[in-house]
Amino acid sequence: MDLLLVAGLWLDPSVWDDVVAGLAARGHRGIAVALPGQGDGRTDATLDDQRQAVLDAVDAADRPVVVGHSAAASLAWLAADARPSAVRATVLVGGFPSADGAAYADFFPLVEGAMPFPGWAAFEGPDSADLDEAARDALAARAIPVPGAVAQGVVRLADERRYDVPVVLVCPEFSPDDARAWVASGDVPELARARDVTYVDLPTGHWPMVSAPQVLVAALADVADGL
């Protein structure tokens, strides 16, 4: 099965290399999606550019599973909205889809038109507890400032058939019970309306493709095997 792997903020497609290899060993094709502004040198990329890159990958694949990490959960959801009959399922790793009209990822201040990695103080605790100092240094060194027109882009959703696309919420730094409570309380309105949501516990931090790629591979392959 084809699994499109969409990285979250600051990361280029190479962050998925170990996951792609692991999925191949399980008989699946992992395809790391190259997002404009994340590794190609572009500083003028927009959220629409990134959305189109994911849709192009969907159109080139065979009813893929779209895996969105962190903020890119919204990109996976945008793909389900635009291609509800072509996306087999969405897998959201450590992230939740933004609602229509919300900013994509306006989390930190822009510096010269882009949102740089803010440093590890912003991610102390469960997010980064499984990363040692060397891993933190390496991840920070590869971080690419997110173009402002991506971070501050507005999510637009239009097709309610997205709610029929199965969703698997992979819960790394939070528990499935935490996630269910957030959905039930109205904090995640898009998932509250989704008709088929499965919660998967993943005992890692926020970047499992870096800290525990084979654990993530097992979770993703199990999802694919069950579809």
Automatic annotation (TrEMBL):
Give the range the annotation lists for the signal sequence.
none
Gene Ontology molecular-function annotations = catalytic activity
- On the tree of life, the source organism's domain of life is Bacteria
The AB hydrolase-1 domain is annotated at 3-219
Q: Which residues form a coiled coil?
A: none
SUPFAM superfamilies hit by this protein: alpha/beta-Hydrolases
Matches recorded under Pfam families: Abhydrolase_6
The record, for InterPro entries, names:
AB_hydrolase_1 (IPR000073), AB_hydrolase_fold (IPR029058), Carboxylesterase_BioH (IPR050228)
Q: What is this protein called?
A: Pimeloyl-ACP methyl ester carboxylesterase
Name its species. Cellulomonas marina
Instruction: Please name the taxonomic classification of the source.
Output: Bacteria, Bacillati, Actinomycetota, Actinomycetes, Micrococcales
